[in-house]
Amino acid sequence: MTSNKIFWNGFASGSGYVQGYFNPDGTDDHYLILKELEENNEERETVEYNSVVATTLYQPVLDADNDPVFDRKWCPRTNLC
Question: What residue numbers bound the domain in which 75 lies?
Fold first, then answer.
């Protein structure tokens, strides 16, 4: 797994790669630019999102053997889950 691979679950679940991130000056908005999206092992062009259902984005931290050590999760509305 590469260091920019990210996973999500909530209304839908899947994975992709972070291509970019930005926070426009003077706002509390945060944006991720994702590429190579997958859901259920199928390529996707969009992420299914529903503002009523909590969506968790996460990226496992891996050890030298590429095994997960700790899952750091980020929730858009609360910063960390």
Answer: 5-80
